[in-house]
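Hey, weird one. I pasted the Vancomycin resistance protein YoaR sequence into the form twice and got a warning about non-standard characters only the second time. First submission, copied straight from the form history:
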Amino acid sequence: MTTSKKGLSRAAKGWIIGGSLALVLAGGYAGTAYALVGQIPHDTTVHGVAVGGLSNDEALEKLTAELGPLAEQPFDVAVDGESASIDPADAGLGIDLESTVSGYAGFTLDPVKLWQHVVGGSEVAPELTVDETKLAAALKAAAETLDVAPTEGTLEFDGVEPAVTEPVPGEKVAQDAAFGTVVERWFDPASTIELPTTTDPVDVPAEEFDRAVENLAEPLVADTVTVRAEGHSAKLSPELLAGAATFTAENGSVDLELDAEEIVESLGKDNSDLGVEPREARVVLEDGKPKIIPSKTGLRVSPKGLGEKIVAAANTQERSVSAEAEVTEPEFTTKDAEAWGIDEEILTFSTPYPKYDSVRTQNLKAGQRKLNGVIVKPGETFSLIGVLAPITKENGYFESGVVESGFSTTALGGGLSQISTQMFNVGWLAGYDDVEHRPHTRWFDRYPAGREATLWEGQIDMKWKNNTDTAVMIQAWVGQDRVYTRLWGTKHWDVKTSTSKHYNLTDPETKYNEADECVPESGGEKGFTVNNTRTRTSASETLPKETLTWTYAPWHKVVCGPPPGDDDK
């Protein structure tokens, strides 16, 4: 470039003048900007709060006072009328008033904002803050209340009619869209914020239930289904099939299951040839003698795979099923009963009873009825209380005379000691092992002396053990003024018994009884001691001789009341 010696060119002068003018204007613009620092344009409002013309600090103070509480108030979100409350602080939502104010009161060269200072401000939105993690958690918590789970459909039988409950889809909060909605509206909700939702589909659609009715339910109960096995058959009614049916709706489909065990049990209840339960052999008393009621095998349809076969057959024209059957043996067979050896009368024992006491006789008859037909298995211990108890009115017993603590009184089951005496004697005379018995404190002459037994529930039992390899059956009755007990079985022991004379005789005395239930007695019978001896011999052994010794108290004279004083003698 060349320059004239006479001075600058015209172009250069133009640039210098223009640049100088620009510098002057820029300086004025910047000066204006600096002049407006710390002042908010007049007529400016933030969320309805007038802050125009205020300084930065004044505006911040005013906004904090008026908008701060609003930012702390919980707001409601809703879906289809169901609402939940969200606390802004817990949800990570807030307002940044310092940033809001500084954007309009701080230094700026933005011509728009400078122009607002000149002509006046406008409505300004506050700067909002959000903690995305907290807000997402708050929305998930709200969804627990707002989400409506789908209602799955059901299919069942009402009688023999298929009944469908239609499935209903659910509705759940669309979390991503709801996030944006809340961020946009939470600080100024004119009303409850309605959240966007998505459909929560059902697992099994309605058309699948229609298919199940047409292809499963209706064919099942259209008619009977025949089950065949081992040359026998039985028809299953629609009512039975419907009652055994269960429909399961899951994984997109409806399936039918039949309770095969219930169907098999129904065959037995309906006396079908395919539902015969095994019958145990029994030994009963018939016409006064033991009789074996033979056992019987059972026939039971196997439930394995039966339900599936019936469901498949219901969709065929034949509607017939070939099933497997199980022949079941009874646990106790005719052969087992025969091995018990209840073939002959072993012995009969009887004692007289007082005919004048009709209540006592009722107790004897009640007890004998319970004993009649009882079987004591080989090696088993017989317990009389185990058969007769409980000794209660509800069990058929009445109050009658007993001996308690040496005095006559009354109690439930009075007279049952005679049955105890009967059972002790048949056990003793048949050669069974004496396990437990206790004679009375004083002797009743209707019983063998020293060979009798009392009974008191909870205190005194009468027990003997069947020490043979065959069973024994008890026959018991009351008749002809006597109590009878007979044992049936196989005689094993040759038993010889002997009774000593009465010795150690003691004289009766006068006793005084102050009990309310006192019964006066004339007394007079002496007390004594007696021995009973038994020997037992079988085809293979002889057992040691046994001796039972018992001492009876005298029959004292009983006077009801206290003993007399010296002045009364």
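That's the output from the first submission. The warning seems to come from a hidden character in my clipboard, not from the data itself. The chain has 14 helices and 37 strands.
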